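#dry-run=false #mode=assembly
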Amino acid sequence: MDILIYGTINSMALALMALGFALVYGISRVANFAHGALYVISGFVTWGFVRALGVNYLLSIFLTMIIIGVVGALIYQFILIRVRGMAISEIIASYAIGLAILEGLRWGGFKGMTYTLPVFIEGSVDIGEIPVDFHRLVVVGIGAAVVAFLWLFTHHTRIGLALRGMAQDERAALMLGIDSDLMAVVAMALGSMLAGLAAILLLPLGNIVVEAGYNVLILAIAVCIVGGLGSWMGAVLAAFLIGFAQILTVKYLGSHYQMVVALLAIIFTLVLRPSGLFGQQKELEERV
Amino acid sequence: MKKKSMWGVIIVVIVVIAAFVIYYATRPPKIEPGIVIGCPLSTAFLYGWDAERAITLAVEEINAAGGVNVAGKKRPFKVEVIDTRDLEPGVPVSEALLVVEKLILEKKADFILGGPVRSEAALAAMDLLSKYKKVSILTTGVLTPKYHARVAKEYDKFKYCFRITGEAVWMVTGEIIPCLVDIGQRFGLDRIFIMIQDVAHARGGGGLIAKIMAKKGWHVIGKPEIYPTGTTDFSMGLIKAKKEKAQVILIWMDMPETSILLKQWYDMKLPALPFGSIIAAAEQPGFWKATEGKGEYCLANVVNAGNAPSNATPWTMKFVEAYKKRWNIEPEGYGTSTSYMAPYVLKDAIERAGSLEPDAIIKALEATDMMGVYGRIRFDPKSHQVIPSVDPEEGAVGSIFQWQAKKRVVVFPKKIAMGEIQLPPWMKK
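#status=ok
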């Protein structure tokens, strides 16, 4: 029972961390290595509103989402667009932006263990004698809702369909009048907002530290590689695979092997099926 | 004509002499060069930044009082800090070594104070200190007993290395075990669950506590649970502790994520007292606010007195007030009071030695006997480890506090205790 409950919670947390990264890559083919930094900065922005300015928590969350979406869009519009199509340059540029944000925060004095966000609901409940706090249940609930929302958004809205068109075949989408740069900006804004949402949901469980940016990036990459770069449904499935594998490892092997799981998953996937579970990038080459 | 020339020469000579007299009388006093203290510290983490603040405070006080008297000449201390990042996950030891070398070669440090902070990095830095003959006083982080054991074993090579803070063996046998035994006797607890971070000092310390507590008749549940640095979920370990009916959870972690552990402990209302033998997250004054009180009843060892308010010596509260005035916060945790004392101890040694020559300073430091913020400060002349005690009149005392009603209340050692240990309400029968 404990494996089922905490495996689900861990998997949903991983999915939330990775969805933004998967979405941006899937649509604009930009590997956004600033994803972890956007996650951390979202935490600090919310903290600023809630703790420093005393703004209502819900309003703070809303404002943070807007701000982080705009930040993501600006990053694309002013920096990444210039190197679009040059994969290595995109990675270097986005990683540099991430480094600048994270190290800038550290340099600015945002270090230590006292930056925290309040949980949404206090208290805990026993599910089959396993204690679970309400906030973790909220994470699972909102995580599932986000996955459902993304599916509905990309299948039943004009922008969503345009984004999917871009993801499937950019040239064909261009011929149909879809502005690829605009869609890439939208994707980056959405991806950043998802990073922000993950931060708002997960950071109340602990504290906001700069180092989390690097950890989140590694986990997001691991999930996306296993799921298949570009496939956000693959990312969800991979999150559950890695999430449960981590919990099983903690339970039966030892908690200090937990971090190894994600890295081993990357290695095994790259060796056995480089395009991941649902990736199409190198599928033809793999078949050959 | 001759008379006129004579007068001219006399006037010129007088003017020149007057100019010299005026120049020497009005010139600014010659500034003696500063004594450079190089501080390799992991400044993004508590044990790094609190050390930096404490060293800065002490140096400001010393300089304001005239500086250091080196053979009759007053010289100021000058602090150079470089971030070693050695407490951050994944940062290799070599980074800290580069910092130590940079401080010595580029910043021309006369002495090294503070770190490196991580035990592994400090052990590796010993060879560098020996190579450059730089006297160093460790003030924070490093707890491994290997450090002073190496000095004792190879004195001639490592005689430059001193440690003014605690070390794991005394901390465990002299402070943590007696405190745990006391808790056991007072509340009838004897089941302990150990959760540690995957770093050398925690593995060593956690293992040692498990062994000793088993010998003391306690039931040690399983092997210590080891968590990698950066872990953000401790639920499986806590569930295990609950299932196995743990009564005390011993935590040995210096990572910030430990606050997650305590929040989870609180949310689960786990009937086990959290005892942080090292628990960086709970040491800081801001911990209460950060966890919205969820860390209440957590015990935290801050290694030395003065890192939380107490009346260990007449200097302790003076230091606490001075630190509060300078940094707008109480001394923050492990490494604060020791880092504050190190410049004072060094000043004392330099003044007695009358020079900055390493061998003279080493002899002077070995003869140190000073009543400081956390008790009497003396170094073992063979191992250069500060001599510990549970009595501030006899040696450097430790400090274990418990979070009670928003305050850090020192509960151990008895001689400096400011209150009694309490159990959380859901543990009371």
